[in-house]
Each structure stands twice: as C-alpha cells, then as structure tokens.
Amino acid sequence: MKTNHVEENQQKLHSSMLKLYEKYLEVIDKYIETCFETQKPFIHCGAGCCNCCETGEYPFSRLEMEYLMSGFPDLTFEEQQTIKTNIKILLAEKGQSTGRFLHKCPFLLNCRCVMYKRRGITCRVYGLASFETVKGKQVIKLPECSKYGLNYSEVVENGTVSLEKFQSCGVEAPIRHSLSLNYFEREILRGVTELEFGEIRPLLEWFR
Ligand code: SF4
Ligand code: SF4
Fold first, then answer.
1. Which of 84, 136, 154, 168 is deepest in the core (most CB within 10 A)?
2. Are 51 and 181 in contact (CB under 8 A)?
3. What are the residue ranges spanned by the domains of the chain?
4. Is 166's C-beta closer than 6 angstroms to any atom of ligand 1?
5. How far is the CA of 190 from the centre of ligand 1 (A)?
C-alpha cells in the first residue's frame, strides 16, 4: 500500500515535470522561430528535406527522451514496430563500430519525423548557425548541410564563413544567439527554472 502511494507520487511528479517542460518548449519554440525568421535569407529548409536526420548522434537529455517516448504509444502499431526494428539494427551496427557512430534517426520514417511535436532541442535548433565562444575566440558554427548547397551555403567561402557575404545579404553577422541548452536556461527561461534535464546521451544510448 505504501509502495503504491510512493509510486503514485512519483508519477505525479513525473507528469508535472513533463507539463513544465511543455511550457518551456512553448517559450523556446517562439525564440527559435524568431531566430529562423532573422536568418531567412540563408534558410532552405522545406518539406521533403530530411538530410539532417540522416546522419548524426542526436544528443538528448533524460527529460527530452522521456518527453519523446511519452508520445510513442500514440504512433500506429506499424510505426512502433518499424522504430523498434530500426533501433535493434542500429544498436547491432553500433556495437560493431569503433569511434563515433553517426546514423539515421530511427524515428525518421519515409523522410518524415514521426515524433515531430516531441522532437528534441537539438532537432528544433538544427539548421541555424550558432555563435559560440571557443577558447576565448568567437566562432560561428554552421549546420552540416551548408556544405551541400543548403542552409548558409551562400556565406561559405573555401570552407570558412565569409562575414562580407553574411553582411551583403542584409543579415546581422555574427549572429547574436547561441543554441545551447545552458543559454536557453540562463538567458530566456527565467521563471521556468525548476526543470531537471538530467544526463545527456546520444539518442541510441537511451535504448541500450
Ligand atoms: S537543416 Fe538543412 S538538411 Fe535539415 S531540413 Fe533544413 S535545409 Fe534540410
Ligand atoms: S527525432 Fe525527428 S527531428 Fe529529431 S533527429 Fe529524429 S527524425 Fe529528426
């Protein structure tokens, strides 16, 4: 009886954390939308483009993972089975590989994210350039697809970012935003601070 009571309390805590996380998403989704808007001249994301979900590790915190998987029961039986098979195959392949294992996301079915509403932060910000300080130096990180004629390809010259080209498109450069979780928490989430994201692991690692 006591155990049931403890479990009940844990479940309540868990679901209130997920609700709080949904509020957090509302705030950062608005912020991310503004970032995409300001970067419009460089953004080529569109329906049917899924290259960014084809190769990666997809870091997810424990909370993001719980939120993602809370939507799993809403998928069709076939989708669930396909995802389970994808994960099984990927884990076997990962077991054979040495070093970093980059792979297609198991939730990408027919070039469509079946968990779109519950996708992670990394998925939400992907496609934007980010502006970070590395060893005291400010660097602009571009999405991988900039190499393939997609986002920000206009500002890449000999493998580096051309600030002149950035400016010639009328877009402020360097971009004054960072896309890390820490930044969101520190700068734009005052008031939604009780969230505990937990450990961050590559997506596949959560299925071991
Ligand atoms: S981020 Fe790049 S690869 Fe992903 S949808 Fe946008 S243009 Fe396509
Ligand atoms: S969860 Fe969705 S958006 Fe994120 S990497 Fe997987 S398929 Fe892409």
1. 154
2. no
3. 2-126+183-207
4. no
5. 30
Half-sphere exposure of 111 (CA within 13 A, CB side): 6
Whether residue 138 contacts residue 174, with contact meaning beta carbons closer than 8 Å, is answered with yes
Pocket test for ligand 2, best of 115, 121, 124, 206 (most atoms within 8 A of CB): 115
CA of 77 to the centre of ligand 1 (A): 29
Q: What is the dihedral of CA 43, 140, 63, 201, to 10 degrees?
A: 110
7-24 burial, b if ≥16 CB within 10 A, otherwise e?
eeeeeeeeeebeebbeeb
Span from the CA of 202 to the centroid of ligand 1 (angstroms): 20
Least distant ligand from the CA of 46: 1
What separation in Å is there between the alpha carbon of 33 and the centre of ligand 1? 15
Secondary structure tally for the chain: helices H, strands E: 6, 8
Can you give the pLDDT of all 208 residues of the chain as single tens digits? 555 776 777 776 778 889 988 988 998 898 888 888 888 888 999 888 999 999 999 999 999 999 999 999 999 999 999 999 999 999 999 999 998 999 999 999 999 999 999 999 889 988 988 776 778 776 778 889 998 999 999 888 887 887 777 777 766 544 454 555 555 655 556 555 677 888 889 999 999 9
**Which residue's alpha carbon is at the smallest distance from atom 1 of ligand 2?**
119
For the Cβ of 121 lying below 6 angstroms from any atom of ligand 2, the answer is no
